């Protein structure tokens, strides 16, 4: 009986301890999940150190990238003197680097004050100068003007610094900002915000091709892991220095910020879409510090850089000199020069090798911690501490291996330390509670609570993602490019209302995009205010040329309706009305279409000569004063049903084969009008005389082309009238074939 009673007592005590152990485990789990949600400093530190360990274990291997650093190093300071140098030296640096073939140059430096070594300033400060000498020095050009002059001969991006407060002294010059398009909403509430910006002196600021913020906010532990590609300051969006350098180097088109309800999703610059976190930041994929990136500034200034070293490169000007204090901590180096951080960011974007913490990462870490901890809570009373410890080691190894493989293969940053630390804390708490209980107590606990356990608690967390393969097929497509004419003037009118410009772009792109999609088109991409689309992929469209032309006409019509609405709004608000005008280029031909990119990131897109020609044709619309130009292949397929009139025989930039282009002036109704045959006949007569060099006859045809002018072709006729006048004054060579050579894109 005593033995039985002791067993019963033990069973009762076991039930009590059993319940307590699991409650403690759940309490520890709830506490850990709450801490993760609150994300205090020590939790974030553990996570970031895990990511640092990933990078240290497998840093990015430095491959050939067109990025180099002009280094104001110890050697340069010893040769040219202490910093700051006269800006005439920096002007010479820009000139020499440009001569060496540099594509663009960015300064990780701000020139906020006039050069104290300028002649006039030196005349005021130097002692012992005669009055004549002082007067002569005052008459010399300032060093800032010399540097500005050198910058105008190159593509130079100057650095700006974000300030925690508005600067006390504000320049009278209106700030010059990079063009930006926002897609999906206003990103400003999600971005880092600077109340003020420290800019360069006016002469240098105005001479620069671009301006970018070089301010980088490190993590709370002082290490730079993430860099904002775009920031908000003074009511506008500002690119970081590397983004602005890439934008200027690739033609200076607007960069774009894509935003969702959760925050910023990506930044598009130079044709590269870079996914970001919700605050517009990316994780830099670092390589160890490498002196091979650097070229000594004194060697550049003295023209001693090896031939070809800077050719085709994007250059960043900064310093590695310890005395100038621009050293930053990174996951791989305790003191990396700040300019190299910008260089590594640029390399990361160019190679598309950024590290990515997906939006679902936090949820996945929560679920992993929850499932593993619940597994511990469920199994410790059943299997005992030793068996659960062995099982936990297996699960831990699987989690660690999974996290590492995601980083190694996909460059994803998933924190496996949190699930491990949480589950181990639960395990230790429960082990302590169960340590003072006997086997019967644990058995009682199992009997009491086993009915409440769910088999779903032991499901695996991670699954292997299916591999996506790159590939494409060759097929005939019709390509369409559209672009806004005079967008700079329109954007300037919204200088005081940048959000109004954002709304305008959304109002503009929406109807044009709908016109494309409604006619079976596929929108490839938005490039600022430009749109690229194609037909006959991914779904077959036998009428791809016709549908593309119909979409172009509808785009023009919808834009006209939008302009009418805007005209009324502008009149009501007392604002000058600037109608939006577009140019549209269309071309048909064989292209490769499919998943283009890398095995890390790709898009469904098209490649081929047809694409390039379509883009070039769009660029010619402004020269011919028409809205829509189409290539000969497209015109051949739609000529019988649409109002198409030959515009010219041109050789677009970068091509040797001439292309016959046609202007699309309307649909079947215009083609059936009485004016269209007359206009077509007038244009043909003009072309015939023009190509035969019968200048007087061609001029007479232009003068009598009343039907063509009635169909809004007067601008095109004026182009030919101007050409003919030039040819009459300076006749073309004897072998002239009538082809016009386009000199612009």
In short:
The protein is built from 25 helices and 27 strands. The chain is α/β, with parallel strands linked by helices.
How would you describe the overall organization of this protein?
- By secondary structure, this protein is an alpha/beta fold.
- The chain contains 25 helices and 27 strands.
- The strands form 6 sheets. Strands 19, 20, 21, 22, 23, 24, 25, 26 and 27 form a 9-stranded mixed β-sheet that branches. Strands 1, 2, 3, 6, 7, 15 and 16 form a 7-stranded mixed β-sheet that branches. A 4-stranded mixed β-sheet has the order 4-11-12-13.
- β11 (255-260) and β12 form a beta hairpin.
- The chain is globular, with a radius of gyration of 34 Å.
Kindly list the characteristics that best describe this protein.
745 residues, globular, 25 helices, 27 strands, seven-stranded mixed beta sheet, single chain, alpha/beta, nine-stranded mixed beta sheet
């Amino acid at each position: 009986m005593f033995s039985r009673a002791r067993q019963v007592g033990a069973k009762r005590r076991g039930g009590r301890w059993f319940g307590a152990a699991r409650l403690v485990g759940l309490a520890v789990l709830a506490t850990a999940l709450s801490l993760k949600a609150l994300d205090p400093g020590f939790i974030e530190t553990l996570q970031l150190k895990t990511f640092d360990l990933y990078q240290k274990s497998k840093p990015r291997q430095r491959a050939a990238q067109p990025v180099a650093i002009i280094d104001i190093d110890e050697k340069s300071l010893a040769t040219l003197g202490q910093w700051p140098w006269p800006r005439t030296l920096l002007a010479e640096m820009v000139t020499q680097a440009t001569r060496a073939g540099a594509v663009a140059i960015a300064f990780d430096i701000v020139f906020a004050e006039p050069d104290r070594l300028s002649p006039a300033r030196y005349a005021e400060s130097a002692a012992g100068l005669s009055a004549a000498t002082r007067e002569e020095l005052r008459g010399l050009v300032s060093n800032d003007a010399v540097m500005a002059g050198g910058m105008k001969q190159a593509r130079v991006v100057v650095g700006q610094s974000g300030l925690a407060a508005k600067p006390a002294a504000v320049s009278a010059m209106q700030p010059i900002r990079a063009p930006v398009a926002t897609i999906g909403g206003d990103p400003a509430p999600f971005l880092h915000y600077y109340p003020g910006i420290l800019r360069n002196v006016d002469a240098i600021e105005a001479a620069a091709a671009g301006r970018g913020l070089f301010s980088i906010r490190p993590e709370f532990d002082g290490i730079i892991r993430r860099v904002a590609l775009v920031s908000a300051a003074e009511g506008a969006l500002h690119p970081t220095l590397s983004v602005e350098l890439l934008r200027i180097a690739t033609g200076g088109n607007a960069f774009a910020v894509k935003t969702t309800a959760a925050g910023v999703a990506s930044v598009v610059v130079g044709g590269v879409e870079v996914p970001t976190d919700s605050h517009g930041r990316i994780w830099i994929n670092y390589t160890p510090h490498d002196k091979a990136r650097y070229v000594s500034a004194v060697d550049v200034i003295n023209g001693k850089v090896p031939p070809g070293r800077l050719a085709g490169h994007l250059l960043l000007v900064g310093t590695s000199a310890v005395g100038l204090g621009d050293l930053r901590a990174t996951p791989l180096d305790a003191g990396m020069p700040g300019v190299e951080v910008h260089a590594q960011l640029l390399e990361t974007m160019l190679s598309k090798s950024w590290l990515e913490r997906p939006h679902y990462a936090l949820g996945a870490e929560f679920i992993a911690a929850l499932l593993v901890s619940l597994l511990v809570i469920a199994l410790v009373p059943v299997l005992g501490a030793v068996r659960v410890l062995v099982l936990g080691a297996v699960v831990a190894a699987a989690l660690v291996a999974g996290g590492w493989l995601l980083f190694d293969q996909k460059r994803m940053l998933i924190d496996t330390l949190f699930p491990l630390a949480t589950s181990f804390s639960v395990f230790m708490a429960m082990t302590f509670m169960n340590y003072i209980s006997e086997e019967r107590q644990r058995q009682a606990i199992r009997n009491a609570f086993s009915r409440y356990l769910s088999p779903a608690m032991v499901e695996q967390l991670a699954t292997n993602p299916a591999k996506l393969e790159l590939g494409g097929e060759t097929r005939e497509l019709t390509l369409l490019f559209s672009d806004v004419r005079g967008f700079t003037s329109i954007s300037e009118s919204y200088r005081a209302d940048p959000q109004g410009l954002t709304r305008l772009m959304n109002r503009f792109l929406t109807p044009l995009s709908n016109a494309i999609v409604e006619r079976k088109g596929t929108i490839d991409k938005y490039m600022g205010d430009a749109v690229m689309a194609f037909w006959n992929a991914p779904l077959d469209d036998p009428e791809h040329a016709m549908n593309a032309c119909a979409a172009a006409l509808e785009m023009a019509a919808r834009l006209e309706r939008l302009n009418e609405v805007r005209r009324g709004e502008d009149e009501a608000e007392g604002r000058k009305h600037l109608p939006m005008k577009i140019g549209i280029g269309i071309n048909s031909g064989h292209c490769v279409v499919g998943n283009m990119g890398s095995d890390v990131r790709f898009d469904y897109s098209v490649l081929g000569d047809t694409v390039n020609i379509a883009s070039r044709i769009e660029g010619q619309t402004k020269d011919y004063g028409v809205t829509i130009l189409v290539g000969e292949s497209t015109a051949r397929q739609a000529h019988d049903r649409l109002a198409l009139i030959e515009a010219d025989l041109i050789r677009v930039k970068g091509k040797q084969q001439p292309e016959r282009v046609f202007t699309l002036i309307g649909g079947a109704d215009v083609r059936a009008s009485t004016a269209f045959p007359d206009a077509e006949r007038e244009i043909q007569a003009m072309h015939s005389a023009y190509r035969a060099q019968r200048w007087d006859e061609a001029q007479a045809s232009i003068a009598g082309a009343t039907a063509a002018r009635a169909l809004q072709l007067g601008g095109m006729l004026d182009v030919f009238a101007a050409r003919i006048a030039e040819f009459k004054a300076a006749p073309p060579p004897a072998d002239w074939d009538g082809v016009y050579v386009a000199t612009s894109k």
